[in-house]
């Protein structure tokens, strides 16, 4: 099993979610995160004062898939999230040793 963690732009969430659902991946965890990297810092004016901040708000999607499903999930996610810009995001893939569904105590890919 593999865990896919993708950091994407906020407005791409619905597109990425639908692409994954269309390819049979319905379960995912979504979190609001802030990232720092190659993106240009943002500047705002609040009550007449200028502020500059480096941490950019993004969305983190986590999906666990079977080894045989990995490439399909990655292809769907990348196609939906890509805008060919420096701040498109990142994808990390890690190995998962075990998955257990609490309600039924099922183990492995069956628990997904």
Automatic annotation (TrEMBL):
One of its GO terms (molecular function) is enzyme regulator activity. It comes from the Bacteria. Gene3D superfamilies: 3.30.70.120. Pfam families: P-II. SMART domains: P-II. Keywords: Phosphoprotein. GO terms for cellular component: cytosol. This is Nitrogen regulatory protein PII. It comes from Rhodopirellula maiorica SM1.
């Amino acid at each position: 099993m593999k865990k896919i963690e993708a950091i994407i732009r906020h407005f791409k969430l619905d597109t990425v979610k639908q692409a994954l659902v269309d390819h049979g991946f319905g379960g995912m965890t979504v979190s609001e995160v802030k990232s720092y990297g190659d993106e240009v810092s943002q500047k705002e004016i609040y009550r007449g004062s200028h502020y500059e901040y480096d941490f950019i708000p993004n969305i983190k999607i986590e999906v666990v898939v079977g080894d045989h499903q990995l490439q399909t999930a990655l292809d769907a996610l990348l196609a939906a999230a890509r805008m060919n810009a420096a701040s498109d995001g990142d994808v990390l893939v890690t190995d998962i040793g075990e998955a257990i569904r609490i309600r039924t105590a099922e183990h492995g890919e069956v628990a997904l």
